[in-house]
Amino acid sequence: MRVTVCELPHDSRTRSLAWRALCDHTTSHASELVLLPEFAMAEAVWTSERPDPAKWAAAEAASDRWLERFEELRVQFVVGARPVTVAGRRFNQGYIWSAAAGVAALRRKFFLPNEAGGWEARWFEPGDSAFPAFQAGELSFGLNICTELWALETYAAYAVGGVGAVLSPRATAAGTRAKWMAIGAVAAVRSGAYCLSSNRVDPSGAWGGTGWIIDPDGHLLASTDTERPFATVDLNLTAPVAARSTYPRYVFSDRFGRPSTSSNSTQR
């Protein structure tokens, strides 16, 4: 499957140009799946300490408007996270859009920061504590929204469940690239799956950009930066299947009732 990650601004002055450039990229590269940043095209409302109903409504409306434009990407699938209100409760909800069926809800973000500049626990209700596998065509994937990349306990289940990729829409700050890339590699190696992430970017430097595609052995296949805000890679969907029988994944397989299939072909 050919996948694209990106770094995108939400600022109205640069958003339209960035969107058009992304559409040109996905069309020329014949992308099949695009991963968007967390709250792509909407204000990062959680930077304000006190929830504001008007800001929340505006963020929801902006996200809904942009959903209607996903067909411009000319891809089969788009995955991201957006603001939704359900029964009067605010959530940060993952979604998958498909050219065939439109938008469908995935899981809602469960692990929420609560600190200056990241008051998510005040803006959102905790969502789903379960981290199931989802499907985009032939790609089975788990969804760890931003902070949830640090939920290390999810990766063992992904390995056992045969997930092919861990997708993470992010909104992470400038100056934190190294530690986020490190946890992306951990997610890939422990899950025996690809790890894909896309991030917000801001000319003021508030958001750090850097999207990535990391293979099941932790090798960086592609990343984004200011000069190259989009990256596309063909994923070999048999690679995660092979990876799960190698080190370190097989070491833990018996614990989950699965037989070990490799003992001397590993490379540590």
Tags for this model:
268 residues, alpha/beta, twelve-stranded mixed β-sheet, 6 helices, 24% helix, 27% strand, disordered C terminus
The SSE order reads EHEHEEEHEEHEHEEEEH
Shape: globular
Portion of residues in beta strands equals: 25-35%
DSSP summary, beta strand count:
12
Q: Over all CA atoms, what is the radius of gyration?
A: 18 Å
Are there runs of 5+ residues with pLDDT below 50, and where? 256-268
Biggest sheet statistics: 12 strands, mixed
End-to-end Cα distance, whole Å, is: 28 Å
Count of alpha/pi helices = 6
Mean pLDDT: 93
Helix content: 10-25%
Q: What class would the helix/strand composition place it in? A: alpha/beta
Give a written overview of the molecule.
Helix 4 (153-161) packs parallel to helix 5 (177-191). Strands 1, 2, 3, 4, 5, 6, 7, 8, 9, 10, 11 and 12 form a twelve-stranded mixed beta sheet that branches. This protein is an alpha/beta fold and 268 residues long. The radius of gyration is 18 Å and the shape is globular. A hairpin with a 2-residue loop joins strand 6 (134-136) and strand 7 (139-143). Residues 256-268 have low confidence and may be disordered. 24% of the residues lie in helices and 27% in strands. The longest helix is centred in the first third of the chain and has 17 residues, at 12-28. The chain has helices at 12-28, 53-67, 120-123, 153-161, 177-191, 239-243; strands at 2-8, 33-38, 77-86, 89-98, 102-108, 134-136, 139-143, 165-170, 194-200, 212-214, 220-223, 230-234.
